[in-house]
Amino acid sequence: MLPYVLELQNVNKSFSKQKLVLRNFNLQIEKGEMVCLFAPNGAGKTTILLMCIGLETFDSGEILLEGKHLSQMSAAEKGLLRNQKIGVVFQKTQLISYLTVFDNIMLPFYIRGTPAKEARKQVEEVLTHVGIKHMASKKPFQLSGGEQQLVGVARAIVYQPTILLVDEPTTYLDQENKQLVWSMLESLHSSGKTIIVASHDQEIRNKCRCITWNLQN
Fold first, then answer.
1. Is 5 a residue whose pLDDT tops 80?
2. Average pLDDT score over residue span 184-190
3. Rounded to the nearest 10 degrees, what angle do helices 116-130 and 175-190 cross at?
4. 106 part of a folded domain
5. Do the domain assignments include residue 141?
């Protein structure tokens, strides 16, 4: 059994000589944990999530995902790992504007080659679970910011990934929808999923193990 599902070892990341984001950053997350990355804007929360799925590079150090060194993996191998193991909820939902809500949530299944009948059944189930079944035929421009965020959550959890990375999930939500999203995350956590949330929401910080740092350290 792996000691950590995700581990960052002395990771350094900068965007220029003048902008150092992370210095000798260390993080260990065990399987089944729910963790909040809580830090000021500009401290690298989103950058950490992107580095952990191979969509952002880092200058030095090492990142291990399920015991695999990301620095030793090809782009194709990282893509396969993301497709099989990881669900991501982006702060900007990354919905495709010309697709309906239903088809946006179907995207992971198109990529995985899942049989259409099975995929449609799972999409219908998650639409009902999230409470957005009535939006299935709408397109993103017809939704509010909060509704788009709920679609992003549904797409990330539709195939039950073992690891879920969530970037500021409640930013655009009212209190009712915030509670709905958080209830879903807690349900996934209870089923054994590892969940890593980047947030500046104090409510989220108080509900799970919190990793915090500032721009100086």
1. yes
2. 83
3. 130
4. yes
5. yes
CATH code (residue 148): 3.40.50.300
What residue numbers bound the domain in which 40 lies?
A: 6-212
The secondary element (H helix, E strand) that includes residue 127 is helix 116-130
Q: Is residue 217 part of a domain?
A: no
Q: What is the pLDDT of residue 214?
A: 61
Q: Give how many domains the chain has, as a whole number.
A: 1
Q: Which residues contact 79 (CB under 8 A, 6 or more apart)?
A: 54
Query: Domain for residue 1, yes or no?
Result: no
- Per the CB < 8 A criterion, the answer to whether 170 and 181 are in contact is yes
DSSP code, position 63:
E
**pLDDT of 145 higher than 80:** no
Can you state the angle between helices 175-190 and 145-157, rounded to 10 degrees? 10
153, 169 Cβ separation under 8 angstroms:
yes
Mention every residue, 6+ apart, whose C-beta is less than 8 A from residue 23. 12, 217
Average pLDDT in the chain: 86
Helices 101-112 and 75-85 cross at an angle (nearest 10°) of 120
- Whether residue 1 is predicted with pLDDT greater than 70 in this model: the reply is no
